[in-house]
Amino acid sequence: MNSRNSRNGLILFAVYLLFYGGFVFINAFDPASMERTPIAGLNLAVLYGFGLIIGAVVLSAIYGVLCGDASGNSSGSDQQEPKA
Amino acid sequence: MIYESSFLAVSIFLAFVGFTLGLSFWLGGKAKSSEGYFAAHGQIPWFVNGIAFAGDYLSAASFLGICGMIAFYGYDGFLYSIGYLAGWIVALFVVAEPMKRLGRFTFADALDSQFNSKGIKLAAGISTLVVSVFYLIPQMVGAGALVTPLLGFPQWVGVVMVGAVVILIVVTAGMLSTTWVQFLKGALLVVFSAILTWMILQRGFKVEKGGNDGHEFQTFRITTDDLTNGDGKVGSLENVDVVPADNGWEKFDKKYVRLQNRETQLVTVWMMKELTEKDGPNLELTEVQTLSRSTDGTIFVNGQKKGKKKGEPELFAVGHVVELPDGKTETGPLSPIDFFRTLQQSKVVLWRNEKVVHADKTETTVYYPKITTGAEVLRPGEHPTFKGIRSEKLFDKVNFLSLMLALFCGTASLPHILIRYYTVKDASSARKSTIVGITSIGLFYVLTLYLGLGAMTSGTLDVSEENMAAPLLAKGMNTWLFAAISAIAFTTVLGTVSGLILAAAGAVTHDLLGSAFGVQMTDTEKVRVAKMSSVVVGAIAIVLGILFQKMNPTFLVGWAFSVAASANLPSLVMILFWPKVTKQGIVAAIVVGMVSSMTWILLSGEAYSKVYGLDAAAAIVPFSQPGILTIPLGFLTLVVVSLFTTGRQQAAA
Questions:
Q1: Which residues of B touch A33 (CB under 8 A)?
Q2: For chain B, N or C: smaller number of CB within 10 Å?
Q3: Measured between CA atoms, how close is B45 to chain A, in angstroms?
């Protein structure tokens, strides 16, 4: 499989996993902090929740660019046959 | 509430369904081979496939269930939005491209690409069937919930209608027409949700005394003496007597009082709250709503026989703001940020319910208002499913972590999502269509919070039908929008159900019959077998949809995610990243993951209370969501069995 794409994918996956894991653990073990309103009168639950959704869209776009989709070059090695 | 069908709504609805079916028949003529039937010849453009991902994925659970949960409980429904979208990250970054490279029709193909094992095909095929059927139930429940207000039919008619239409779609043209139906529906759902959100923001918030049907809920203060002196006056009510608390009501004698009008004999129920002030009134009475069904099946609302037409007795519409910041009574149009900022400082009325059980085993459901601050509405942990967030008990917290893990891992393991990787031409297209999918799905999920909170404050909610929040919100805006939203929601169900039935039919044809049982079939026979399986799976879905009609679809989807993640994810991930995987390891992981997660669910407190009608506390397992144990168990099984069987496989080779 295309190792560059795969490595990029795993790095971005790890970044998102940390971000998502942070949200879940704050909710579970310090729920009161979700009620704080750090920015613009919005509470952390709304900010972090929107952050996770927008973050997923942004990371997926970054991944697309890294894989060369933006330049229209669909990385030739995509067509490789699987190692059997 | 009483749901009357409107000519406009029905016309738009029928036009939609007619168009969808027409498209299906037309495309059906183009896909004759099995390659065309199951994978649309792998020729779907990536952008169309990406929006079709959204159409496939944004099911009734997303649209009806999440909006309903947010409308009744606030932020909690949004946790599902977050978890569902996060799952796509796993799908894109980990499984999308390898899935495309390794498989041809089904995800069992991908798992089996190195082994050519009947066991893998059998296990993966069965797991696909089980997950698809689990996932079908909530879709059918959602279909029933939609048809009731739209066409005025009972719920089971809706379920049968969806089943019939979907079977027709799947039987006529398979993946090609299913993809275009999903593309249409995905695009329309996002666009109309955006329109609805814009209208919610334009409307802003307004302080009201009740729902949009004009009924104002009453609250007044009295002294205990008013209830006992027998002069017929209680607060602003005249000519009423207190009905003794008996026949099940004695359990609630400190909470509710029933008052009977001397002339009409009508009994109304009031919630009592003790006041702490020293002088003057010491009790506050608040109007509640009741819904009961007598032994002969007659339905009573608020003490009267439920009517059949508008104007006759029905539950009152609810969902209103009682206090805005700075003593304002109306906000006017709000920006997307001011919407939350204003709500955060306001107070709204939410409705909770409890059941009074009578001597003849009938029940009265009491719906009572609860004034809730915006700060509470916008924080997680109010819904029973998410009580773990505010609970001190460790198992409650584990239950929450387990659900969020299952949502994260489940998406990438859903068979009907995985088969969509085979409808595009190469891995690059698979990746690009996933990115388009994530973007459109993400946009929709951002809108769910506005839609749900908009419904909460719209004055249109039916206290007894949580799933109806989004369509009723649209109805409160205007009839056209309601008709369009209902039709889209209905095609939403059609799109997802078709995808699921196709996934199940593919599993039966390729994995079970074709590979595991070695039945030799020609191309035409494969398509015929798949169509027959579609009819059978569709029929099963109809029956289950009717049986489970009272459950929140989102909740049921949570179960499907747990089973999918436990059964499929370990093998999917390990086959990509661990060279020592053996076929025995894969089979064992699928079987152990599937059986353990299903057993856990069937023995859980939630199944006890919501499926069997038993006491949740009597459940055998300590928390309801299995993912946190059964997903690692699947991985562990795979590793252990693979290590034990590596030598044997090498010896055999």
A1: none
A2: C
A3: 14
Domains in chain A, number: 1
Distance (Å) from the C-alpha of residue A69 to the closest C-alpha of chain B? 7
ipTM of the complex: 0.85
Is residue A83 in some structural domain? Answer: no
Shortest Cα distance, chain A CAs vs residue B300, angstroms? 40
B113, B435, B445 ranked by CB distance to A60: nearest: B435
Q: Which two tokens stand for residue B235?
A: 């607060």
pLDDT at B596 over 90: yes
As a whole number of angstroms, the distance between CA B311 and CA B313 comes to: 7
For residues B592-614, give the mean pLDDT: 86
pLDDT for residue B68 is more than 80: yes
CA distances from B226 to B86, B222, B264, B273, B559 (A): 57, 6, 21, 14, 51
Contact A28 B388 (CB under 8 A): yes
How much of chain B, in percent, has pLDDT values that exceed 90?
A: 22
Tell me the residue range of the domain where A22 lies: 3-72
| Cα radius of gyration (chain B) | 26
Q: Which residues of B touch A69 (CB under 8 A)?
A: 428, 431-432, 435
**Residue A57 to residue B439: CA distance in whole angstroms:** 5
- Is residue A81 assigned to a domain? no
Whole-prediction pTM: 0.87
Q: How far is CA B7 from CA A16, B10, B212, B224, in A?
A: 48, 5, 22, 52
As a whole number, the mean pLDDT across chain B is 84
Token pair of B395 as six digits = 């198992």
Residue B378 has pLDDT above 70, yes or no: yes
Burial of A29 (0-12, 13-18, 19+ CB in 10 A): exposed
Residue B453: per-residue pLDDT: 95
CATH architecture entry for B7-205+388-652: Up-down Bundle (1.20)
Residue A67 falls inside a structural domain: yes
Mapped onto helix, strand or coil, the DSSP state of residue B468 is: helix
Beta-carbon separation of B340 and A80 below 8 A: no
Highest mean pLDDT among B133-142, B305-314, B371-380: B371-380
Contact at CB, B337 and A40, closer than 8 angstroms:
yes
Contact B83, B89 (CB under 8 A): no
Mean pLDDT for B8-27 is: 76
The pLDDT-based confidence of B36 (bands split at 50, 70, 90) is low
